[in-house]
Amino acid sequence: MWKDESQQSRSHYLFQTMLWIAIACAVTLFMPKNIIEILQLDKLLTDSAHFVGMCFIASSSYLVIDLTKNVFQNYKQKKRQQQLATDIHSRMQTLTSGERAILREFYLQRQTSLWLPDQEADVKSLRGTGILIPVDFYNTTKSNEQGIKEVELMISHIARPYLTKSRLKLPQGKPSYEDISYLKDARPSYLTPIINLRKSA
Questions:
Q1: Hey, how many other C-beta atoms are within 10 angstroms of the C-beta on 69?
Q2: Alpha-carbon dihedral 92, 93, 95, 96, rounded to 10 degrees
Q3: Pairwise pLDDT comparison (189 vs 62), residue with the higher score
Q4: 22 membership: H or E segment, kind and range
Q5: Is the pLDDT of residue 156 over 90?
Q6: Alpha carbons 197 and 200: distance in angstroms, whole number
Q7: Residues sharing a CB contact under 8 Å with residue 190, sequence separation 6 or more, in sequence order
């Protein structure tokens, strides 16, 4: 899945800049006296020590704040993922027949992603609970032959472990005639027809 990394890149480069400024200032301020004399930096350091000190304090403060913020954000993200996993697991117990049919379609078509009508109630419900997520970060859509807008979706990594054959009402072995009839009848009308359902199942 594509991600918008523009903001991350700016933050990354700013962090790297501040890190190198802090290192350079620290080396300059705490450099041994004999090395300063060898490099003949006595006068330069005397004249600009206060400026170097201010840069060191400013850059170090930024680094501490940024690291603290990242630790806090990672903690919040971890808690959100744990809560999302709990919500998805709970939601799996109450799937409607329409939602189950949509999830089953990924297995029937042997696809990791499908173009689905974004305004269908069951599709919106699965997206809202985090079970289905867009493949494209920007939620790019296209119109099908009927002019209905579709978005490419896939099953989230969190939801996949909970999607067993029994939960999706898929046959455990080779599907019988009754199994095939049930799977065909249960498929939403807006999904692409499957020519050889016996082989797919």
A1: 11
A2: 180
A3: 62
A4: helix 6-29
A5: yes
A6: 5
A7: 117, 120, 148
Only one residue has tokens 């807006």, namely 190
For residue 78, give both structure tokens.
């971890």
CB neighbours of residue 82 within 10 Å: 11
Residue 2 predicted with pLDDT over 50: no
Q: Residue 103 has which token pair? A: 């999830």
- By residue count, the chain amounts to 201
Residue 159's nearest CA partner among 84, 79, 74, 76 is 84
- The token duo for 114 is 């499908």
Bridge partners of 132, per DSSP, are 155
pTM of the predicted protein model: 0.62
For the segment 133-137, the average pLDDT, to the nearest whole number, is 88
Mean pLDDT to the nearest integer, 111-137: 90
